[in-house]
């Protein structure tokens, strides 16, 4: 009687492992098709070849430890102003090159950190944070009512603000 229960257990194991293998096989094919899209999801179109951090916490950690400034872009997928800024940002060769010197994060949701919304939760807004984890209130756009807002026509200003963020860092370190 003992042997019989072993046999049925053994058969059950074969069936289970077969089912698991089938699931794993399904997963593999899915993963290979989605893998190349990974940077795309993190960049959300702001620069697919750039390295983007996944979370605000990770971005702060990296800024602190790499001694690079952090650039945070708040935007929304269904906001025409965000879309317009994203397009010129992604197509601006000099900005894309300079962006490699930053820790980068783009967010489609607000964090609980009030420092990231010093004058409101509007989009798009771009903030620079130095490696001491201080929001640079001295690096702003041209609108007094929305200090960190940029229009597509302000792309040159955003570029010079990125240069400023890097320059400030050199003089302060």
Automatic annotation (TrEMBL):
Pfam families: Thioredoxin_7. Residues 1-21 form the signal peptide. GO terms for molecular function: dystroglycan binding. It comes from the Eukaryota. One of its GO terms (cellular component) is extracellular region. It is found in: Endoplasmic reticulum; Secreted. The keyword Endoplasmic reticulum applies. Keywords: Endoplasmic reticulum, Secreted, Signal. CDD domains: AGR. Belongs to the AGR family. This is AGR2 protein. It comes from Struthidea cinerea. The lineage of its organism: Eukaryota, Metazoa, Chordata, Craniata, Vertebrata. The gene is Agr2.
